[in-house]
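Reopening closed ticket. The problem is back. First fold of the pair:
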Amino acid sequence: MKKVFLIALLTFPLLFAFAQTEKLDKFPADIKDANNFTARQVSEMAIFPGCEHLSNKDKTALQKCFQQNISNLLIDKLADFSDKMDELKINIATTKLQFAVDKKGKLIQIKSIGGTPELALASENALNQIANEIPPIRPALLEDGSPVNLVFQLPVKFAMQQDSVEEPQFEWNELVMSTLKDEKTKYEIRMTKEQSFKVYEISQSGEIFLGNFTFIYEIGRTEPYKSIIEKNQGRNLITDGTMNGTQYKIYSESSDFEHIYIYQVENDQENLVEKLPYRDFYFHPKYAELIKR
């Protein structure tokens, strides 16, 4: 099987093999059911469970929260699709899902549109499973308060990274892939040279080894890491620390899985200084002191 090496391991909260759902299309072009509405036509967006803290009138924020939640669920269901990719001997698969949130808050009219047939079928089946498992979504409303069906399209992409024999150009035993923080605790997820993953609890007194994982997506299914990742809403802290007297915070973004974003921190302000391709960041020594262990 193809191994997902460094670059493909960094797409928190997507968590596996460049699997990605892109932004929900607010205005699908091929709606044929007159009972369906688009986001442009409704007064209030459908509200996914967990997004209730957002303003009913803020369509953009509600759409982003909806997309993040449905993407996390869908990606979790598709975690084993890499095996199918290996069986088919393909590196990239794409499709598009169309579905509606009906007046009662249920996902209906789920269908895949084009793309790779195997991913189309797997995605459609996964979303049907999700529809049977999630609590009701608050439906979209017209100006008079009437609930209506709201239709969306969601592009899905799954890409595998080929085996890599290249080694980082510096000495290392473990590399930090992600840093997760809740109110009281800091965790580091590290990759070993055997391409397994270890989780540590980090404190001022040192570090405590918490567990070993074969695949990185297993960490994303395990609490408390799962909840922290979901709260990050697509912005993953890789590491933070001081190098040559300068404090840095380094992030990956689920909306741009090709780059790492490096910020300098001064007076509690984060200032973007550069963004680097994943390979340049992880294989070259410029920021090695912050990620090698």
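Second fold of the pair, where the issue appears:
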Amino acid sequence: MLNIVPIWFIRYKFMNSLFLGLSVGAVFTLYAPLTPSLYSMGGIGLALGILIVSRFYHKILNSHYLFIISLFVEVVLLIAMVYFLLSPYNYQSALMIYIAYQATFVFGSYLVRAETLLLAEDTLLTKVDTAKQLGYLFGMAISYLFYRLLDYYTITDSQTQVYDLHFVLIFVEVVVIWLVFRSFRR
């Protein structure tokens, strides 16, 4: 059985939210080639995926599956970012990245529920939620400063800016994956 290591789990959640804060503005550029109707289809797929995952809560609401699913989500994100850097920017690459992100969102409710049940202490949950919000805020601030720095160096094309940001995102995601491993022990 795996146990959560609180100090590392808190660091993981901070960096995970830092990643989210860094990347949130990039999706508007990443998804630009997609049509609005695709978002409706993606939403339907997401809802169905969450419904399916929730039907397995009785089996997966434990630390073993929290580790596996957390690692899966982070690896999918890493693969999607590498794919973005290696592929031409077009409808197909935008669609593949959208599908990858939607696949990770399917587990969002599960991850929050498992985290709440497994951590169980209000002081620990407070620390985790504080770390998440601080990570998100720092990520948004770093993202803003990164884009302003690129503007200063006259790199103003949004596709180029988002492409350049992905090098930072990949570094952060590798740290996040390392922290997932540190956050659980036998």
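Update: turned out to be a display glitch only; the data is intact. The mean pLDDT is 96. The beta strands are 3-4, 184-185. Please close again.
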